[in-house]
Amino acid sequence: MFEDFQQKQFKRDDVIINYQIGGSGPPVLMLHGFPQSLAMWAKVAPQLATNFTVICADLRGYGDSGKPTPLPDCANYSFTEMAKDNRGLMQSEGFESFHIIGHDRGARTAHRLAKNHSEAVKTLCVMDIAPTYNMFMSTNHHIAKAYWHWYFLAQPAPFPQTVIAHDPDYFYETCLVGWGAAKLEQFDDQQLAEYRRCWRTRSMIDGSCADYRAAATTDIIDDQADHHVKITCPTLNLYGKDGTMAALFDLPSLWQECCEDLTSKAMPGGHFFVDTVPDQTAQVLNHFLLPHSSEKN
Predict the structure, then answer these.
(1) Do residues 277 and 265 make contact, with C-beta atoms less than 8 angstroms apart?
(2) Is 228 a catalytic residue?
(3) Which one of 53, 82, 247, 257 is most buried, counting C-beta atoms within 10 A?
(4) Under the phi-then-psi rule, with left for phi > 0, alpha for psi from -120 to 50, and beta for the rest, what region is 67?
(5) How far apart are CA 66 and CA 17, in angstroms?
(6) 154-161 LR contacts (CB < 8 Å, sep 24+)
(7) Around Cβ 241, how many Cβ atoms within 10 Å?
(8) Is 271 a catalytic residue?
């Protein structure tokens, strides 16, 4: 799917991070969300690769990256650990600083990376999320009903894994179409086949649950400690104008509180606008990145 890209692997603390790299120019790191893999960027990354060196990585626990046995508090699946994975990956490619784009869980990882390793992040793009701190601290019956999976996936093992493993396609496809303005037929057949290949494995089911358990334990502690710290690099907040997240939160206002230099833009569709309008997504990303990319790394 990634024409002219090379598949590679990076190892950190015995965890393999799978990624695709292509193009030339300033480096851009792209991180997918739940319940997907790096395949979500297959129609966007090549359009950025005409101007940039593009790296698309599978988060630990997802896709073809490693899925370590979760610690009791799942701290090894925290956004802090995922940020370290991807910081190390970029350093292994010779990039000490880079642009970072994240969707869903990838956006939360990118947000944490921009906080913990601010010197490494030239620009940040977060796609269709409210900050993790706000998600937990603002939960009411509307949010709990719409984002029930946060609390289901975080339940103690092996309850959620056992339920999901009974019919992974039914569970994860319900997530794809359940957060606003998307139908299954709007997803590319090849990309959807890749999502299914990965989420049908018990190890990814376990990994995705560990990710959400970490968010409810380790990550919320980290967020409580530094939620007042603002992101200083130029930041782009993209969100689906017809999606659940935009219906629940004033996303531009929330991210304005978190960032010193923010641009917000509503995209057509819902949560998975990267899949449903990839050409428009690539155009918006190029428009944001190019003015900040005059220097080669």
Answers:
(1) no
(2) no
(3) 82
(4) beta
(5) 6
(6) 154/209, 154/212, 154/213, 154/215, 154/216, 157/70, 157/206, 157/209, 160/209, 161/202, 161/205, 161/206, 161/209
(7) 15
(8) yes
Q: Which amino acid is at 185?
A: E
Distance CA 2, CA 165 (A): 29
Alpha helices in the chain (DSSP H): 45-48, 79-92, 105-116, 132-137, 141-146, 148-153, 159-166, 168-178, 189-199, 202-214, 220-226, 244-248, 251-258, 273-276, 278-289
Q: How far apart are CA 166 and CA 183, in angstroms?
A: 23
What's the CA dihedral at 252, 101, 75, 209 to 10 degrees? 80
74: left (phi over 0), alpha (psi -120 to 50) or beta: left
Query: What is the C-alpha to C-alpha distance for residues 77 and 208, in angstroms, rounded to an integer?
Result: 9
pLDDT digits (tens, 9 = 90+) for 211-228: 999 999 999 999 999 999
CATH number listed for the domain at residues 6-292 = 3.40.50.1820
3-class secondary structure, 46 = helix
Q: What is the pTM of this model?
A: 0.97
Q: Which of these, 120, 78, 127, 131, lies nearest to 101 by C-alpha position? A: 127
- Residue of 58, 64, 85, 104 marked catalytic: 104
CA angle 237, 233, 124 (to 5 degrees): 40
Q: Single out the catalytic residue among 32, 99, 103, 271.
A: 271
Contacts of 162 (CB under 8 A, 6+ apart): none
Contact 282, 288 (CB under 8 A): no
CA distance 103 to 120: 19
- Residue-wise pLDDT tens digits, 174-209: 999 987 678 999 999 999 999 999 999 999 999 999
Give residue limits of the domains in the chain: 6-292
For residue 102, the tally of other CB atoms under 10 A from its CB is 27
